[in-house]
Amino acid sequence: MARKNRRFSTFSLSFLDIMSCGFGAVALIFLIIKHGSDHDIEAENQDLAAEVNLLQEEVEYGREHLVQARNTLDSTSDELAEAQGLARRIIEEIEAVKGNIAEIDSTDEEDDIKRLQEKLKKLQQAKKELEAENEKLGNNVRKFVGDGDRQYLTGLRLGGDRILVLLDSSASMLGDELIKVIRTRNMSSRVKRQTEKWQRALRTVSWLTAQFPQDSRYQIYTFNTGFRAAIAGTEDRWLNVDDHDQLDKAIDELGKVAPENGTSLERIFNAVSAMSPLPDNIILITDGLPTQGMKKPSGDTISGNDRRDLFKRAIKVLPKEVPVNVILSPMEGDPFAASEFWKLAMDTQGSFLAPSRDWP
């Protein structure tokens, strides 16, 4: 028997499978598209959030600096008010000056001439007073003013063509009493320079240089265990007194020296003997006999007799026939100093001075 032909139906199983696949594809595409859009929205939201945070930071920054801006504004307002007040005062002064100019222009020429003549007479009188003051000062190359502008009759021999000043800068120049020296010698250089005894020694040198003859030459040495010129680099050179700037510089440099160490007269006297040409006047400012010779002593202490022996050995190297003028500020515990230095001054035809504490 022949087989019947199968009829085609749109609702067959194969057709339904195709339709299901199509709907599934559409759903998948929808999900993919939706996910992509959500990602874009999320990225956009992050950008907006970053902008919001930046704006918030700017707002906070603005709030923080708002007070400073207000203070600056107030300060500017005050300065503006001050400037306006100053401008008004300047305008008033200008007006006053204009009024004075108008007054001057309105005066007679004869009155102007009389005023000028009176002014000329006053200037001539002031000139005469200055000349009289210069005559009183005499030949001093520098002015030295102490308490009450005092000067004492000292008997010091301040003349000569080549004057050498020897200033003791050992630790004993820190005080007149041993306990003061011990207490001060371990302090700072600034404190040492300000001690009363050292300042008195510096004033003495300043007073001496003010009395030097105008046409003479000089040198200033400080000494302790060694020696140095007041102006570094001028050792073994004679400086001109009429160079006032250089002389002032020498005095200023002495103010930078801080007393320290022991005293070696033998070393400084050897240096004096080596100068060429030799000095023809020596002024020695010290407070006692030496504590060592050319070498450092082996012990920590030294007796009065030993110091006198060191002194006698030192004066043997001094150049002959050169007067030594001694200015002594006696130190306690050195009983032979005054007599030995007095004998040195007398033997060399110099002078000896033990001044009071308020000199010069």
Automatic annotation (TrEMBL):
Keyword Ribonucleoprotein listed: no
Family annotation (SUPFAM superfamilies): vWA-like (SSF53300)
Start and end residues of each VWFA domain: 163-288
The UniProt record lists the keyword Membrane: yes
Superkingdom in the source lineage: Bacteria
Entry keywords, A to Z: Coiled coil, Membrane, Transmembrane, Transmembrane helix
UniProt xrefs under InterPro entries: VWF_A, vWFA_dom_sf
Name this protein carries in UniProt: VWA domain-containing protein
